[in-house]
Design brief:
The protein is α/β, with parallel strands linked by helices. About 40% of the residues lie in helices and about 15% in strands. The protein contains twelve helices and 15 strands. The strands form three sheets. A seven-stranded mixed β-sheet has the order 7-6-5-8-11-14-15. It has a four-stranded antiparallel β-sheet with strand order 1-2-3-4. A four-stranded mixed β-sheet has the order 12-9-10-13, sandwiched between helices. Helix 1 packs parallel to helix 4, helix 4 runs antiparallel to helix 5 and helix 6 crosses helix 7. The model has no long low-confidence stretch (mean pLDDT about 95). The structure holds 5-S-methyl-1-O-phosphono-5-thio-D-ribulose.
């Protein structure tokens, strides 16, 4: 039986609360649509709620999407005892019925958002766990071992995400500080939200900033507003203030002039999908920032856990880019509501603009020939 737990990352901002008590999982997520003005946790009672929380962007951020999907599945499967009994009867026919029942829910969850690979990687990983958890013939319930394995894995995912993020923070801080030795610390620029609110805790790119801040080596951090959904101004600005970092908010269009006039030591951004050749899908506006950084001679790092790597995809031109409803753009821009608009949620930054990829296993740097060997790096560290 999975061990009883209560998820707490020690973070000031908890993106979710997950509990497993008396064989029952429960989940509430912080409604990010209401931030920064209201802190409200909403319950996720089944896979439909999990799907809806992801699709509506009450939760967002590549790692968090995947985690909420798996936790939502755990809640769904432990909540309905009548279904469990029915499935156990079905198991008289074969455990394949149970597997199909669970796989259908997993497939449904992957239809919530297309671009972040974490969701797809998480479901693949879970499938392996389900395949390996064959109930014994003496077991009174055929269903329970699967549910137990899923709950245990959900708890593991929560812990792994926070520890990976802390390792990313440490590797990123060490690497950047090895070249930038100003005693006042380093000046960063970031886009979107990659902190506690985008993960199970601590954050990826913002986790690097947090680690520098913890070491008293973060001189400043500039956060791009991240139009049109404003994850930068609503969420990253909130995290920066909560953590008492020295932060400045910029409109996306100010990035070039900011780097030209104020300067920065590094841009650090998150990722939704890192391809085999290092091309990286991330929030819309990341490509523009990378091009500007290269022109201005500023290092450009992607902070990505292994769960965001997609080494099965050769290059970025194959990434499915989510298009969000026009209303999301129209509402935040003040445009006439009938104005046609294009609202891609992500773009792909070619590897040639990326200085390195900061992972929990270390920093993958460009080779002498200017390429990023993601596949070789994964092989070396697996
Ligand atoms: O549309 P969102 O808010 O889910 O997009 C989030 C991003 O693009 C993040 O930069 C990325 O998921 C990394 S989060 C650690």
């Amino acid at each position: 039986m999975a061990a009883a737990t209560d998820s707490s990352t020690g973070d000031n901002l908890r993106s979710l609360i997950f509990k497993f008590e008396d064989g029952k999982a429960s989940l509430s997520v912080l409604d990010q649509l209401l931030l920064p003005h209201e802190t409200k946790y909403v319950p996720v009672n089944d896979v439909n709620d999990a799907w809806d929380a992801v699709r509506s962007m009450r939760v967002r951020g590549a790692p968090l999407i995947a985690i909420v999907a798996v936790l939502g599945l755990a809640v769904d499967l432990t909540s309905n005892q009548a279904t469990i009994r029915e499935l156990d009867e079905a198991a008289a026919v074969g455990v394949d019925d149970i597997k199909t029942y669970i796989y259908d829910k997993m497939t449904y969850l992957t239809t919530s958002r297309p671009t972040a690979v974490n969701l797809f990687n998480a479901m693949e990983e879970l499938k392996q766990i389900i395949v390996n958890s064959v109930p014994s013939s003496s077991s009174s319930s055929h269903y329970a071992p699967f549910v137990d394995a899923i709950v245990t894995h959900a708890q593991f995912m929560l812990e792994r995400d926070v520890s990976d993020n802390k390792a990313i923070g440490a590797h990123g801080a060490d690497d950047i500080l090895s070249r930038h030795t100003d005693p006042d610390g380093v000046r960063l620029v970031t886009i979107c939200n990659t902190g506690s609110l985008a993960t199970a805790g601590w954050g990826t790119a913002l986790g690097v900033a947090r680690e520098l801040h913890r070491r008293h080596k973060l001189r400043s951090i500039a956060a791009l507003e991240t139009r049109p959904y404003n994850q930068g101004s609503r969420l990253t600005a909130y995290e920066i203030q909560t953590e008492k970092m020295n932060g400045t908010l910029l409109c996306d269009s100010m990035a070039a002039f900011y780097l030209q006039s104020k300067g920065a030591d590094a841009c650090v951004v998150g990722a939704d999908r890192v391809c085999a050749n290092g091309d990286t899908a991330n929030k819309i506006g990341t490509l523009a920032l990378a091009i500007i950084a290269k022109e201005m001679g500023v290092e450009f790092f992607v902070a990505s856990p292994f769960t965001t790597l997609d080494i099965g995809l050769a290059s970025g031109d194959k990434v499915e880019i989510e298009e969000r409803p026009p209303g999301e753009m129209l509402e935040s821009s003040g445009a006439p509501l009938e104005m046609p608009c294009w609202n891609p949620s992500f773009d792909v930054t070619p590897a040639k603009y990326i200085t390195g990829i900061i992972t929990e296993k270390g920093v993958l740097k460009k080779s002498a020939d200017g390429t990023l060997d993601v596949v070789g790096f994964v092989k070396k560290h697996s």
